[in-house]
Amino acid sequence: MSEKASYTKEKLKRQRTGTYFLEAAKTIIIAEGVESVSVRRVADAAGYSYPTLYNYFKDLNELLWETRQYMIREMTMEMPQKMDFAVEDKEGIKKVFKTYIEYYLENPNIFKFFYFHHLIDPGKKPEKANEEPDFGAMWNEVFKCFVSSGKLRERDVEAAAKTLIYAIHGMLTLSFSGNGDLGEEGNLFRDLNMIIDYIL
User: Fold this and answer.
1) Alpha-carbon dihedral of residues 142, 143, 147, 149, nearest 10 degrees?
2) How close are the terminal C-alpha atoms of the chain, in Å?
3) What is the model's pLDDT at position 123?
4) Collapsing DSSP states into helix, strand and coil, what is residue 183?
5) Which residue of 16, 53, 57, 65 has the fewest CB atoms within a 10 Å radius of its CB?
6) Which residues are CB-neighbours of 156 under 8 A, at least 6 positions away?
7) Which helix (H) or strand (E) covers residue 67, if one does?
């Protein structure tokens, strides 16, 4: 085996083992919440000793940071599969963001992990740089019917998308905390529709 082939095989093996740890951490987070994650539990669930985990992640913070990035990438691939409809008007936009809300209602521990658990950026690894989701491209695709019809300027797509996302995150926070009337699912969608009607 050539030196290059040997290096490639070792790199693939390392990536595969690293993914086992990420999957184990993800499973614990979804089922029990991030508070239940520890290096030992993740290593045990992945089928390795905990010292082995430190060959891949320098500490629990880096493990959780990489797990969050891994889960975000998965979510951005999963969401389009749930949207088996064309976004051609305001009702289509409402369906898109309703699907987004439903994802977190089904996975409250993911929402709490993404937005309530403080992590420190360990520094972007070069090999991970090209794995970042292109949110700009996604929003341009979602809102393109409004841009083409002249109802929304292309330069305003990001602002419209972020306004909706930030509003939804606030609504979900109120829903999960039991404050106000957003604990009822129907009221979440009522307010979502009201906000979209106002923006668009």
Assistant:
1) 90
2) 60
3) 85
4) coil
5) 16
6) none
7) helix 60-82
Reference 77, options 144, 131, 9; nearest CA is 131
Residue with tokens 């490639």: 8
Tokens 């996302």 found at: 165
Q: What is the pLDDT of residue 15?
A: 86
Residue 42 confidence (pLDDT): 97
Residue 163: count other Cβ atoms within 10 Å of its Cβ: 15
Q: How many C-beta atoms surround the C-beta of residue 182 within 10 A?
A: 20
Q: Which two structure tokens, joined as six digits, stand for 42? A: 């993740």
In angstroms, the CA 157 to CA 142 distance is 9
d(CA 92, CA 86): 7
- Helix 185-199 to helix 157-177 angle (10° resolution) is 160
Return the structure tokens found at 59.
């500490």
Alpha-carbon separation of residue 189 from 31, 51, 115, 149 (angstroms): 26, 47, 21, 26
CA-nearest of 3, 109, 123 to 57 is: 123
State the 10-residue block means of pLDDT for the chain, 200 residues long: 59 85 98 97 95 95 96 88 80 93 95 96 69 83 92 94 96 91 90 95
Question: Residues with Cβ < 8 Å from 193, sequence gap 6 or more?
Answer: 94
